[in-house]
Amino acid sequence: MKKFYLMLLLVVGMVVLAACSSGDEETSEGSGSEGSSSVDTITAWAWDPAFNIAALENAKEAYNGDGEYEVEVIENAQDDIIQKLNTGLSSGTTNGMPNIVLIEDYRAQSFLQAYPDAFHPLTDVINSDDFAEYKIATTSFEGEQYGLPFDSGVAALYVRTDYLEEAGYTVEDVTNITWDEYIEIGKDVKEATGKNMLTLDPNDLAQVRMMIQTNGSWYVDEDGSTPNLAGNESLEKAFETYKKMMDADIAKIVSDWSQFVGAFNSGDVASVPTGNWITPSVKQAADQSGNWAVVPMPRLDMEGAVNSSNLGGSSWYVLNVDGKEQAADFMLNTFGSNPDLYQTLVEDIGALGTYSPAAEGDAYAVEDEFFGGQQLLTDLSTWTDEIPAVNYGLHTYAIEDILVTGMQDYLNGAELTTVLEGVQGQAEAQLK
Amino acid sequence: MKNVKRIFIYVFLSLAAIVSIFPFLWMLVSITNKSVDVTQGRLLPGTHLIENMKTLFSTIDIVPALINSTIIAVITTVLTLLLASLAGYGFEIHRSRGKDIIFNILLLSMMIPFAAIMVPLYRMFGSISDTAPLIGIDSLGAVILPTATTAFFIFFFRQNTKMFPKDLVEAGRIDGLSELGVFFRIYMPTMKTTYAAAAIISFMNSWNNYLWPLVILQSPEKRTIPLLISNLGSSYSPDYGVIMSAIVIATLPTALVFFLMQKHFVAGMMGSVKG
């Protein structure tokens, strides 16, 4: 009887395997439809109604081409889009896939590599010189431009001026500083106000990512796939800095997004180093108006590091399905070449694009009372141009999962080089 | 001594109750608060309930989503009860040489995670989309079909049928009932509690089902409640008060179904243990 069950298990296992592999096989065949049939309606998937969805709606208004088609904007959560795209594209049926989709820059390369024929190149459609240089690296693949760069993930340091003042510092004192200087100021702020300097989430190394990009480094080599962890000086420095923050006891530990937002909304922290898309969340606490300023991101204390970095940000992609010509036309006549659209985007929704010609417009020069009359958008655009370009490669989140445990070991007292060699080995084994 | 033990038990039980009820309490409190209060961890009821409800119903299509979820959950539950009980009845009452082998294969199929069959399943539905749009991609039919019955429910009904008195089947046959007659007129009324228990589980599974509806449904007007809630949380600055309100509304139907059938549910579960 035992034999029978073993056989049964084997048969079932084979059936499952066969089912999986046949799904993969068909990928290239199904999605590479070369027909150029036009459609009446093109669909676009994106997340966040207040930001990306609103941007698409604005783009529909601003469209100045002569194509005759409807654009249907569909809202999906980012994780949901990833799940849907992966299932749809790997099943090889183009049924139900959108024409335009928004993909986060960290994930773009893995999609472009996994489904090479699924995306429609925009190389001849847009002028890639018009966009911030660092975005082009992440949105192109093997010499072809696939993505239309959208929002800037330019990172900045949001600081509470009132807390700084209490500790005897001015905004100038936190402008263009290194992380080490930041920690010293943090200690003084904590002593004077009792408030922590920032929040840290042990499961999310966004902090480390932003730090190493100030020095043009990433988790992977230039090729986008070889893990670059052991012996990566920027990463070592970032790990050391992270530990210093923990040791100096200037960080409030949070475990999810709502706690992160809650910490600065309730005035528990004196600064927020993160992407500029956090602005609406900071402004949510209206009673703190006038007590905030935004300064350039601190840099790693290393030769060559700059006071500018990036966190998140995403770009538009056209899928290689029926209607791709119209989708490309829509992209070109909106986000691809329309500076006025970008003016409305910053005015209406505070979405900061990476289309360089747009930065000259009046809307960028507006003074923001919440931030003490600072010309926030102009500043952010300036910093956007300085972000070091890195190839995010294929495995940002996979490597980060490994690094998270490495970081815990390091914080618990393990030797840094040993830890990084360990994660390097793990990453190499896992990502082969 | 006995009293000390009692106090200890009560303290322990109270703690356990607080731990399990707290999330619900927090959810209920949060629908009356502004988003910023929710993120700050406010535990007292606020005055924002009406605003939250207004935002919810004016900006989010929650009613169509509720209707979709209801249609899917009700049809899935009815199909599950009918098909799984027929199968469970057949497996237990009728004699056949291969039935145990088939039953074991069925049980083994329970061990394959859904994620593993999702891509081939999507492909299958994709290939029939053009000929049969009613059960193709982006249709409610496609959500219902793969979950219309599962090995678990067949197993559940078979186990419960073990305590169904077989003499009744004989008696029915002698009195001239057809096989289906025996099933519908004798088996079904006798097994009411089992049906109730299965109905609750099936309804809850279907109502809360996330992954498959997510990949197969594309148009916003066909969304189910879990998909809608997932969307609400996707924003860079989510409105937690509104999200909590949506979650409360989404929880009500399952809670209602459960309380309506609670008595039968408990009896049904006990039965399955005894069997």
State the secondary-structure class of chain A. Answer: alpha/beta
Point out poorly predicted stretches of chain B. Answer: none
Helix content, binned percent of chain A = 40-55%
Mean pLDDT value of chain B: 88
Oligomer: heterodimer
| Shape annotation of chain B | globular
CATH class of the largest domain in chain A: Alpha Beta
Report the end-to-end length of chain A measured between terminal Cα atoms. 40 Å
Low-pLDDT residue spans of chain A: 18-35
Main location (chain B): membrane
Keywords (chain B): Cell membrane, Membrane, Transmembrane, Transmembrane helix, Transport
Transmembrane segments (chain B): 7-29, 62-89, 101-122, 134-157, 194-212, 240-261
Family (chain B): Belongs to the binding-protein-dependent transport system permease family.
Account of the 3D structure:
The complex is a heterodimer of chains A (432) and B (275). Chain A has 432 residues and is of the alpha/beta class. Chain A is built from 17 helices and 13 strands. Chain A has two domains: 37-152 and 312-360, D-Maltodextrin-Binding Protein, domain 2; 154-307 and 390-430, Periplasmic binding protein-like II (D-Maltodextrin-Binding Protein, domain 2), CATH 3.40.190. By secondary structure, chain B is mainly α. Chain B has a single domain (59-274), classed as MetI-like (MetI-like fold). Chain B contains 14 helices and no strands. In chain B, helix 3 crosses helix 14 (240-274) and helix 13 runs antiparallel to helix 14. The interface between A and B is large, with 47 and 41 residues.
